[in-house]
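User: Is it possible to get a 3D structure for a protein together with its bound compound? The compound here is iron/sulfur cluster. I've pasted both below.
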Amino acid sequence: MAFSMHWHDADAEGACRRVHGDVYGGSHDAAGMRSVMTAHSVKSRLRQLLSILQKTYPDAHCALNFTTPLELLIATILSAQCTDIRVNLVTPTLFQKYRTAADYVAADPKELARDIQSTGFYRQKASTIQRCCAALVQQHNGSVPDTMGALVGLPGVGRKTANVVLGNAFGRPQGIAVDTHVQRLARRLGLTTELIPDKIEQELLVLVPRKGWTLFSHLLISHGRAVCKARVPQCDTCPVRHLCPSIHPEGSE
Ligand code: SF4
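Assistant: Yes, that's possible. Here is the predicted structure of the complex:
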């Protein structure tokens, strides 16, 4: 999915308040004007960044395999502290065995833990899955809800998981999923100075057009995995190095 961006002054003013925390009264305020210009330049740079990343990662998509919202919800819970590749190795058998939320609730906790053991933290994850599925059964007739409010009300479901499910399983993004890659890259690329995922998300929501929210995460995750790695970013070969304020000439942090 390709998306284009349309910037408006109102967007820019919102962005500068969010990004820089400036409070200003009017268009004649010098600090305010500087902030608006900065917001414009951040958005202009972001537009170029995303254009390049879309060409570099044309197949960027959710790396977790799923066919239903419930499967994606379970896979996302399993992906905590685990690679998507590892989760995808476990889920085919798991999804065959447990087809509904009620199936997870009825499972023997030890058996469910064994079924997901290789994803790590398996006892905790099994407990989370069972509590989450119990809430689905009790409050939503076993279905996964499609609103942010209902999803974050489920045990073990935070905004990141809710955003993944809403954007990828329902195609109705209500936010931007901020995982460890998005967190790292948004900061390195100068899109935020925040540290906390929820605050980073709020800043990104002002900068990124709504229709691109889901793809935005996939593009940053793809780039984070391939080039802008946590420990040693490959700045020398990075296709967006000319747009990045954190370029490391020697390829190290
Ligand atoms: S230039 Fe370096 S720090 Fe910036 S996005 Fe590329 S790899 Fe990451």
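The chain has a mean pLDDT of 87. Residues 9-61+177-243 form a domain with the Endonuclease Iii, domain 2 fold (CATH 1.10.1670.10).
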